[in-house]
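Contributing new records

If you add data, match the layout below exactly. Sequence lines come first and carry their own label; structure lines follow with theirs. Keep one chain per record. Anything else will be rejected by the validation script.
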Amino acid sequence: MAFFFACLLALLPVVSMKSPIFGPKEVIGAQGGSVSIQCFYPPTSVNKHDRKYFCLRNSRGSCETIVSSNGFVSERFTGRANLTNFPMNGTFLIQISQLVPEDSGLYKCGVGISSRGLSFDITLEVGQGPDLPDNTEVIVTEVGKTVSINCPFQQQNLQDKKFLCKKDGENCELVIDSQNQVGPDYTGRVRFRIGGTTSKVFVVIISEIQRRDVGMYICGVGEDSTTGIQKIFVIQLLKLEPELFYAEQRGSVILSCALGSTVANLPKFLCRVRADETCDLVLNSKGFINDATHGRILFNPTEEPGSFTIMLTQVRKEDAGLYHCGAQKNGQPSEDALQVRALQLFVSEETTVPQSPLVVKGPSGGSVSVTCHYNPKENVTLKYWCKWKDSSRCTKLVDSSGMVNETYEGRVALFDHPESGTFTVLLNQLTPKDAGHYWCLSNGEHNRKSTVKIEITEDQPLLIAPQNITAQLGQTLNISCHFPCKFYSYEKYWCRWNNHGCETLPTQDGGNSLAFVDCNQNSKIVSLTLSSVKREHEGWYWCGVKQGQRYGQTTAVYVSVEEELSGKNAVQPANSVLNKDARSRGDAVKPDVRSKGSEVVPDPESPKEHSGGSKVLVSTLVPVALVLVVGALALGVVKARQRRFSDRISVGSYRTDISMSELENPRKFGANDNMGASSAQETTLGGEDEFITPTENPEEIQEPKQVKRSSKEEADMAYTAFLLQSNNMANEIPLDGPIDA
């Protein structure tokens, strides 16, 4: 029983595992000729150095090695079999010459220490040729080629009509004769020529050979094609021996098709061959793409006339099969196609290509992050990202050398991570037009090229910041970026965008820098501060989150820099934020400057003007104070009614009554702050209305609303606040002499 299970376990790997080795399913050779058989294997380090072999299966079911990569050649094939390994391409080539009919059979090409390793079945057929009449010449050609048929004749037939016809059952349809009569199927592509009066051979030249041209031809003299036969020709087409292409699942592959210069100006096509030998169109150079390959296939003409390549990305198992590439006037596959090549694609499910998302979604106005892969062991110098337009266009948006499409400046950045063989592309400020397919490309191994589809959703962006900010020269600028609680564990950052990426700005602890990042988790804000703004600070700034090399959401802010304004025209830049000290004091930041032409310079005479104006201020305030005293006496009667509910408070030389309810929040009366103002204040500066939005304060937001007061209480509060302000002003004014109370 133990022996039975051991045998079963030994067989399981062979039975259950699908081999990644790939080669031609059928090879046909002629007796005395030779064949070349190419086999593919996954180019892993183990496979590159492992034994490669080609063996022939016998009647007992075992496989006898014919030739192997370690130099072995069986006695039967000595001198006519050879195996060459190409580890860089993941292929090896078997060549067998001097074929005999006994060489026909079922073979295997494989990798492993024995014939039970990974392998692929190949059928070899060695034919003796067709059974043709004597004096028959066989012409083997290809579709689109030109053939010349040399027909001999006797001296006595020198003046007789010469002809070439194609055998069709009992009839022989005219191709051309010496009287320049041409058959309808050959109009424009057949010529008749005799070398001279002494020549005993006439030549018929047929160009642009088509599939329907295959068959038997008779050349002769006279009027009767049955009695004047001089020679029989047979035109055969080379069987389309498919060129083999190997791809890994999720990887990419480049299919090449060389058709020749004769069809350089004709539309090209690629179709997939069905079991019934019909061919379904995959794409053509006129713009057609089938749904199965939409967004992941690209047609690219080469410099060689009549040749092109097709790149297929995100390869799937169902992409494997036989394809035909060709040229035709309408871009459609047909038997009349002038040139056709066969391409066999094998897709290995044993893949080394990392898995990546096929679809990435981002909100309108938000951003997306796309990770691309390349082989870090290769000398990959250029990575780039393009937007797929159609079957022949992929517009490059950004690359690792610093190129950025001008319409995407400030929106796209590429970050290379050579240690992991990846690069990340960030695209923000999304609009519905950004939806579509994008390609990750490099100048390295084509197997790592990939495609991703970006979809735009109706969700709201997770990071919120102003889109445009105007900063003033020499001032301090603060920009706030709001993020949701889900990003608390992420690294938050600000960076300065440029063509080579987005350089992270140094933190406040990084030394004496012009910019620093401050994170306040309580208010969910990441703030960027630029001190002493300069002209070179103008540009794009990004706020974002990431975890290690995994980049998340980003949002972009454009900062423009202008000259600082003075006097009444000095306006706080929109969306900028004052520093925390000025905010807590409620002080307005008003530099003592004056305008000199277009330049803003300090005003040295300002202190003198302030000292000289104090006498004018006294002469104005004293009469006003006297009027207010009279007003206070008039209100005394009204205030007396509230004294039993109030406390008497003395302020300087004035005495007033304050309702106890007004002491619940003394900040409401402060002459030196406006903390009770709403988050969006409407004010008038320089004769124009402007909205100023101060930095959000979570403590004020969470404070409960105050009880609504009556109009009488509001009047009392306003009057008390005025007395406090008047008292402070009176104490600060230097008087020339005493004033009688």
